[in-house]
Design brief:
Structural class: alpha+beta
Largest sheet: 7 strands, mixed
Shape: globular
Radius of gyration: 18 Å
C-alpha cells in the first residue's frame, strides 16, 4: 500500500462488496492489435491483475516499435497506484503515461450529481538513475479515503465532498451517499475539465464496450522510447 492506509486491508474489504466481484470472469483477450497498439478486454479481472499485464504489453510493444498505445477495459475498478505500473515501464528506459477513468463518484463544481470517476493520471520518465514518476487523482480525495473515513467514523477534511443534496459536508456517510468534489479549490473547474478529458481518452480504451456506459472504467497507456525525440537526453 506504500504508506496509504486506505490501500491495504480496507481496500480488500471493498472487493468483497463490489458487485463486479460476483460477476463471472473470462480470460483476458486482445480485441484489436496493430504494430503500435493493442486494445485489451480485461475479462472482468481485478484491475491489479489486468493492468499489470497491460503494462507489460505496452512495454514490449514500445520496445519493438518505438511507441505503443494500449487500451484496457472490462476490468474491476480496483487497481491501486498508477505509479506501480509505470515503474514497470520506465525501468525498461521507456517514457510512460497512464490515464484511468472510473465509475462515477465526483460531481462538478455547483452540481449535485455524480458525473465522473476520481480519474487519475500518471507520467514516468527515465533519468539514468531513479525514474521521475508523477501520479495524481483529479478529485479532492480518493474514493478509498472516503470509504476509510466512513468505516472509522472520522470527519472528512473541509471542501472535499457534498451530500446528496449538493451541500458541503464533513460527514463521510453523507458524502458516500453524495459526491466527492474535483481537486482545485476555487479552480475546481480545472480539475473537472482534466477529469472529463481523461474520461474521454478512456473511451478510446473501450470503457463503454462492456456495458455501453461512457461512465465506466478504462485505462490508456501511451508509451514510447525517448530516443525517438532526443537520443540520450534522459
Amino acid at each position: 500500500s506504500c504508506g496509504y492506509p486506505f490501500a491495504g486491508l480496507p481496500r480488500i474489504l471493498e472487493f468483497a462488496h463490489d458487485p463486479r466481484t460476483k460477476e463471472p470472469r473470462q480470460p483476458m483477450r486482445v480485441v484489436r492489435e496493430t504494430p503500435v497498439s493493442v486494445l485489451v478486454d480485461g475479462g472482468n479481472h481485478i484491475g491489479y491483475y489486468a493492468l499489470y499485464h497491460a503494462a507489460r504489453m505496452a512495454a514490449e510493444k514500445a520496445k519493438q516499435s518505438g511507441i505503443a498505445l494500449v487500451g484496457l477495459h472490462n476490468s474491476a475498478a480496483y487497481s491501486g497506484r498508477a505509479a506501480y505500473y509505470l515503474e514497470l515501464i520506465v525501468r525498461e528506459n521507456l517514457v510512460g503515461i497512464l490515464f484511468s477513468s472510473a465509475l462515477p463518484s465526483v460531481a462538478p463544481e455547483g452540481g449535485a450529481r455524480r458525473m465522473l470517476g476520481t480519474n487519475p493520471l500518471a507520467i514516468a520518465l527515465p533519468t539514468g538513475g531513479e525514474p521521475m514518476i508523477f501520479d495524481m487523482g483529479t478529485a479532492a480525495i480518493t474514493q478509498g479515503e472516503l470509504v476509510l473515513h466512513a468505516r472509522l467514523n472520522e470527519e472528512l477534511p473541509e471542501g472535499v465532498a457534498i451530500d446528496e443534496n449538493g451541500l458541503p459536508t464533513l460527514d463521510p456517510h453523507e458524502a458516500v451517499k453524495g459526491s466527492i468534489l474535483p481537486f482545485g479549490g476555487r479552480d475546481r473547474h480545472k480539475g473537472f475539465g482534466l477529469s472529463l478529458s481523461i474520461q474521454a481518452l478512456s473511451l478510446l480504451a473501450g470503457a463503454a464496450l462492456p456495458k455501453g456506459d461512457v461512465q465506466d472504467s478504462g485505462q490508456l497507456f501511451i508509451v514510447f522510447d525517448p530516443d525517438l525525440l532526443a537520443p540520450q537526453a534522459l
